[in-house]
Amino acid sequence: MEPAERREQILIHAARLFAERGYHSTSVADIIAAAGIARGTFYLYFESKRAIFEELLDRLMTRLASCIRRVDVSDGAPPPGEQLLCTMARVFDVFAADRTMLAILLSGAVGLDKGFDDKLAEFYGRVALVVERSLELGEELGIVRPCNRRVVARAAIGALKEVLATMLEDGDASCAELARGILDLFSRGVLVEGASIA
User: Fold this and answer.
1) What is the CATH number of the domain that holds 159?
2) 93 found inside a domain
3) Of 28, 83, 88, 110, which residue has the fewest beta carbons closer than 10 angstroms?
4) CA–CA distance from 53 to each of 19, 50, 82, 105, 108 (Å)?
5) Is there a contact between 39 and 53 (Cβ–Cβ < 8 Å)?
6) Cβ–Cβ under 8 Å, residues 183 and 81
7) Residue 44 in domain
8) Which residues contact 99 (CB under 8 A, 6 or more apart)?
9) pLDDT in tens, the chain (198 residues)
């Protein structure tokens, strides 16, 4: 087996074990056994299981970043709402295509390993920054009202995580429908027009 294939094999087995057992309950020995390799072979490719976890998250972030498209407001472009819906659906498609990583993100126990916690926090921080920048661009384009972008970005991530958990539980959930629900919440809210909460 070529080195690149062997490395990929280790990543695949580790990701499956992380999803099934949780990151903290999976040992390097478990990964070695699942991949059918020697301990020395493992360490030729990765210095630790955390290194594998970090690479898996970095790869996921790259795939998510490739889904994001700047809203085009030029003449003839689709309406901004339609473009946003397509972007959100692509994000859901990434997670639907990689339910293993989705399970890892949603089941990772924090507080047991500072390095793990830091990497997970970095991942969500990077996602939040993308959302904040998108909100800022939306304000500049006149399609998003001024808001506390940091708070809204974190709220959006929290909502996304909960909806993704639903997707994981319900294998028949439509990515487009989930995307529409999230976008509807953040574009129109839940109160009827003119309703007062004072």
Assistant:
1) 1.10.357.10
2) yes
3) 110
4) 11, 5, 34, 10, 11
5) no
6) yes
7) no
8) 19, 168
9) 798 999 999 999 999 999 888 888 899 999 999 999 999 999 999 999 999 999 999 999 899 889 888 888 889 999 888 888 898 899 889 988 888 888 888 875 565 678 778 888 888 898 899 899 988 988 988 888 899 999 999 999 999 888 888 887 876 778 888 888 888 888 887 778 777 676
Q: Is residue 28 part of a domain?
A: no
Other CB atoms within 10 A of residue 94 CB: 16
Amino acid sitting at position 25: S
Burial 11-29 (b: 16+ CB within 10 A, else e): bebbbbbbbeeebeebeee
Number of C-beta neighbours around residue 60 at 10 A? 19
Residue 115 burial (CB count, 10 A): 12
Percentages (nearest 5) of helix, strand, coil residues in the chain: 70, 0, 30
What DSSP letter does each residue of 145-160 carry, written as one string?
----HHHHHHHHHHHH
- Residue 40 maps to a domain: no
How much is the CA Rg of the chain, to the nearest whole Å?
Answer: 20
Q: How far apart are the first and last CA of the chain?
A: 67
Q: In the chain, how many domains are there?
A: 1
Distances in whole angstroms, Cα of residue 45 to Cα of each of 5, 50, 118: 11, 12, 22
Tokens of 25: 């309950």
What DSSP element (H or E) covers 75? none
Separation of alpha carbons 103 and 105, rounded Å: 6
